[in-house]
Amino acid sequence: xxxxxxxxxxxxxxxxxxxxxxxxxxxxxxxxxxxxxxxxxxxxxxxxxxxxxxxxxxxxxxxxxxxxxxxxxxxxxxxxxxxxxxxxxxxxxxxxxxxxxxxxxxxxxxxxxxxxxxxxxxxxxxxxxxxxxxxxxxxxxxxxxxxxxxxxxxxxxxxxxxxxxxxxxxxxxxxxxxxxxxxxxxxxxxxxxxxxxxxxxxxxxxxxxxxxxxxxxxxxxxxxxxxxxxxxxxxxxxxxxxxxxxxxxxxxxxxxxxxxxxxxxxxxxxxxxxxxxxxxxxxxxxxxxxxxxxxxxxxxxxxxxxxxxxxxxxxxxxxxxxxxxxxxxxxxxxxxx
Length: 337
Known about the structure:
This protein has helices at 4-12, 40-57, 83-86, 97-113, 126-137, 143-150, 152-176, 196-214, 250-253, 257-263, 280-283, 286-300, 319-336, and strands at 21-23, 62-64, 119-124, 181-186, 221-225, 245-248, 269-273, 305-309. It is α/β, with parallel strands linked by helices.
């Protein structure tokens, strides 16, 4: 079996490995169940399916999905519709069951995965925890930006409270589990009034607050700049974030791996495949996927480049397709030597 850590080390060092790495993953429960950490049946499914995916897909690196833990407990006590309700959100502390349950979960998955592969836990930036609750669970797609614009200080205050708990989680993960790194998810505020200046004033400090805590333990951070559909981002706003590698939605942003690598200070990047239903990843023949991989790698090169998707892929994907990507990447490497 390939040495997956060696492959990943070459990628993270912006060097050329035996082949390019591949990073793909999917959710294990439905959207509303992403908030169901207190339901034992939901968490049994997440744990069992995560282990199954690790065993069957044998990924080059493991993104431990945080399904079940998307909702900060104080944020989820009731449906928030006003600034007054938002201001009531408080930090829950490092010993809260929401944090303990994540530590236990990550510890179990790391033990199952073993030490021959890098394991990254998925964590959201403080503002992302708020946005996702409002949009994914409450299905209110205007509330986050509306409240943020109405009272920026209130939104930042609440996000900082959530950041305190996220930092406590980070500390416990790195002192109590064998996790190797963090997959950190961020997004620009989806409103044109949030210019680069506003992003740097209101959003970036919150992103960096958690990142700087992670850096106390490791610099092995993969930054996911989350885009999908009409949700788009400005990659250049993230180019100086202190992370090892970047992933973004190539098909939403219309920015290729090669272009993005230039924008992001030539740091390692991964992606290339559309994750939308009916796209090439799910429907293409092996020959069509080979043609696309060769096109991507001819354009971007193979130093500090990996293959992946814009975001999570469909849970019903035939895992043989992910093996094709590894096999084709190996063929490409051999041909170019």
